[in-house]
Amino acid sequence: MSTKTISITEEAYDRLDSRKKERESFSEVIKRLTGKRSLTEFAGIFSKEEAAELEKNIRKGRISATKRLERIGI
């Protein structure tokens, strides 16, 4: 197995170290923290008001993008 050496600040190291479980390597911590996540993990993170605002902004963005594409003939 090959390895890479990286430089991180002491603050980043301390944060990573605080998430490290007993007998877990730093590579294992990084893989655990950056692994693929299921969308169901994000269920309920927004209040109803926040979700409504996000939905409104997404719709505005889609409308705006559609108009831009129509202007350039796509």
Helix segment tally? 3
Number of strands: 0
String of helices and strands: HHH
Write down the overall mean pLDDT. 93
Any idea how many domains?
2
Shape: elongated
Computed over alpha carbons, the radius of gyration is 21 Å
Contiguous low-pLDDT stretches (5 residues minimum) are: none
Give a structural overview:
- The protein is mainly alpha-helical.
- It folds into two domains: 7-36; 41-74.
- The chain is 58% helix and 0% strand.
- The chain is built from three helices and no strands.
- It has helices at residues 10-19, 26-34, 48-71.
- The protein is elongated and about 55 Å long.
- The protein starts with 9 loop residues before the first helix and ends with a helix.
- The model has no long low-confidence stretch (mean pLDDT 93).
Outline of this structure?
With 74 residues, the chain is mainly alpha-helical. The protein has three helices and no strands.
Salient structural properties:
single chain; 74 residues; mainly alpha; 2 domains; 58% helix
